[in-house]
């Protein structure tokens, strides 16, 4: 078990460009979460999947954001027409559906929009 | 009012000190109370959790929840320089949705 992995670890892009991040959860974890963390703040929930179904999206997830988990394994988060306000750490977490849904976080993808 | 309030610090203590970290919350539906530790430029890692009210001890760490006052605490005994990190409280309502609602985090530095 290698833990949750995220790729890339860092991304610098120009305003208006599209970016895509990938998350590989712990194998056999059926829940996958995306959070966003800005400097000096705690992570904020964006969306989560149970297997391939996207079950909830936060109001923070504008229509420029889209997330997928096509086969219930890895997930991608795409941001279209990036804005400077999108600069943040994007964190992925995974968990098993149990009585207590312990979430294990990846190292995050740090996005900088110039 | 934010759902979870946490004093961001920073908090600086000498090695060996007892550290007290606290959060308050407003959502009565919260049933699970997690504490995560986050080192600089890393993802959060689960430190410990409690369910409902009460205390839970794990080595040098003790988590306390008082649901009547909506108050969450984490105590660190015999603090070590390796404990220097940001500590995040993260309650959850459980049920069908276990999304975490994080506090801002408290930055702790333990000085040798």
Largest interface, C-beta within 8 A? A-B, 26 and 26 residues
Number of helices of chain A: 0
List SSEs of chain A in N-to-C order: EEEEEEEEEEE
* Largest sheet data of chain A: 7 strands, mixed
Strand percentage of chain A: over 45%
Which strand-content bin applies to the residues of chain B?
over 45%
Record field, number of beta strands of chain A: 11
Record field, number of beta strands of chain B: 10
Bulk shape of chain A: globular
Oligomer: heterodimer
Give the overall average pLDDT of chain A. 92
Specify the biggest β-sheet of chain B: 5 strands, antiparallel
Rg of chain B, Å, rounded: 13 Å
- The helicity of chain B comes to under 10%
Q: DSSP helix count of chain B?
A: 0
Derived structural class of chain B: mainly beta
Whole-Å distance between the termini of chain B?
A: 37 Å
Shape, principal axes of CA atoms of chain B: globular
**Backbone structural class of chain A:** mainly beta
Describe the structure using short key phrases.
heterodimer, A: 114 residues, mainly beta, seven-stranded mixed beta sheet, four-stranded antiparallel beta sheet, 0% helix, B: 112 residues, five-stranded antiparallel beta sheet, five-stranded mixed beta sheet, 53% strand, globular
Structure described in brief:
Chain A is mainly beta and 114 residues long. Chain A has strands spanning 5-7, 10-13, 19-24, 31-37, 44-50, 53-57, 65-68, 75-79, 88-95, 104-105, 109-113. Helices cover 0% and strands 49% of the residues of chain A.
Descriptive notes:
- The complex is a heterodimer of chains A (114) and B (112).
- Chain A is 0% helix and 49% strand.
- The radius of gyration of chain A is 13 Å and the shape is globular.
- In chain A, strands 2, 4, 5, 6, 9, 10 and 11 form a 7-stranded mixed β-sheet that branches.
- Chain A has 114 residues and is mostly beta strands.
- In chain A, a hairpin with a 2-residue loop joins strand 5 and strand 6 (53-57).
- With 112 residues, chain B is mainly beta.
- Chain B is 0% helix and 53% strand.
- Chain B contains no helices and 10 strands.
- In chain B, the strands form 2 sheets. In chain B, strands 1-3-8-7-6 form a 5-stranded antiparallel β-sheet, with no helix packed on it. Chain B has a 5-stranded mixed β-sheet with strand order 2-10-9-4-5, with no helix packed on it.
- In chain B, a hairpin with a 2-residue loop joins strand 6 and strand 7 (61-66).
- Chain B is globular.
- The termini of chain B are far apart.
- The mean pLDDT of chain B is 92.
- The chains are: A mainly beta (114), B mainly beta (112).
